[in-house]
Amino acid sequence: MTKRYKGSCTTILVGKKASIDGSTMIARNEDGAEALNPEKFVYVKPEDQPRHYQAVLSKFHVELPDNPLGYTSTPDAVDGHGIWAAAGINSDNVAMTATETITTNSRALGVDPMNPDGLGEEDITAIVLPYIHSAREGVQRLGKLLEEYGTYETNGICFSDKDECWYFDSIAGHHWAAVRIPDDAYVIAPNRFNIDHFDFDSDDTLCAPDLKQLVDDHHLNPDPEGYNLRHIFGSATVKDTRYNNPRAWYGQKYFNPEIEQSPIDQDLPFICRTSKKIAVEDVKFVLSSHYENTDFDPYGTTNTEGQKKLYRPIGINRNQELHILQIRNDVPKEIAGIHWLAYGPNTFNAVVPFYANVDDTPVQYKNTGAHYTQGSQYWLSYLLATFGDYDFHLFEDFENIFEQNTVGECRHIQLEADKVALSKPDTKAYLTEVNAKLADVSFTNSNKLLGQMIELAAPRMKLQFTLHD
């Protein structure tokens, strides 16, 4: 059996009344177990979706339905340990991101052990996203699969359509719970069990049929009243105070600076609200953040080395790709799904708004090799981040200008394409061409930034000598 690797991501959900344009958004940093885990961006056509699925990391296998939808996907670029499709939008404008590795506890595992032969992160997107026609249906399909086959790990998964965002926590080996995020709310979810207060009788919750009985029969609830699933099934460890809670704290601090909270608080809220309408750029900032303007910034100039290393930042060298899956409500359905995408550590990249209703994906984003090659956006983005990390403050202003200009230029192309897309004889083919233009903008501007960084850094090389020295 292939060795299993656990990633450690950060997830954000935004309801349609909380966003600046009335769209729903689910977003996640896909963080690898190591610094490099090459990713690619593909479109999976219905005829290319397997009818029999066999996992690589376990013995799990399943027969799949005969009527899959097409979907965008960001799988691993190197074969050998599974698909890891990660995220995408299908042709019915349903979005899914999987997974956020989460925590559990010994009480939960005692009553419902993990299944080593069950399904896991490598499988989930590929066996769910092509077969769902709403976010709620995605929750229900994944829940039934977990109940039947079990899992060898606990994960958080998100679904969205034009109306709803759902967050799903898997529980121990065969159980699960999900919450519809209120339209006027947002969520920041790090690598912990995230759902807190849970109403088993609400129309906005779903769960395994026997979940409440499991809790009651086995005395799993530590609270005298109500059901806080994070208390029941999650963890509250010292590691959480260093690795998980600070990320939720910083994201909530960004959206709600008026609220005073502690970065080590084990009970930071799950569902949050802010008076500011949330834009794609806000989501990107939080998913790129490293505790800017606090004592914990690894790039800080006045804080100590101990403070810099105290908490795990959201933006990190293990970021492989960042996606923001946006389903818009102010445009026709043919152009509503936007798969925003950026590769590599988020300190030196920019998200690009790729249309999801396409036939193919741009060559720079699709053709990722196992090792560095020119022409690959993944490897170019990693080069920028690696180079930039050596002197962040020297390059910071240039990166900010690059990101603003790239996203602005891409937004303009998108706005112009929105106006004419439905008048084209073949809308899918046209949007595929637009995506190629968007990729060209990102690739060209990334290379321009690299050139600027070289021109800034070359005079500072230590290996220099002149007759005047």
Topology:
Blueprint: E1 10-14, E2 24-31, E3 42-44, E4 52-54, E5 61-63, E6 71-73, E7 87-89, E8 95-101, H1 106-111, H2 121-128, H3 135-149, E9 155-160, E10 165-171, E11 175-181, E12 186-189, E13 205-207, H4 211-217, H5 229-233, H6 238-255, H7 280-288, H8 305-308, E14 319-327, E15 337-343, E16 352-355, H9 363-366, H10 377-389, H11 392-420, H12 427-457
Antiparallel strand pairs: 1-2, 1-12, 2-14, 3-6, 4-5, 7-8, 8-9, 9-10, 10-11, 11-13, 14-15, 15-16
Helix pairs in contact: 10-12, 11-12
Pfam family, one: Peptidase_C69
Keywords: Dipeptidase, Hydrolase, Protease
GO molecular function: dipeptidase activity
Describe this protein's structure:
InterPro entries: C69_dipept_A-like (IPR047804), EF_Hand_1_Ca_BS (IPR018247), Peptidase_C69 (IPR005322). This is Dipeptidase. It catalyses: an L-aminoacyl-L-amino acid + H2O = 2 an L-alpha-amino acid. GO terms for molecular function: dipeptidase activity. The protein is α+β, with helices and mostly antiparallel strands and 469 residues long. 32% of the residues lie in helices and 17% in strands. It contains 12 helices and 16 strands. The chain has a 6-stranded antiparallel β-sheet. A hairpin with a 4-residue loop joins strand 9 and strand 10. Helix 10 (377-389) packs parallel to helix 12 and helix 11 runs antiparallel to helix 12 (427-457). The mean pLDDT is 96.
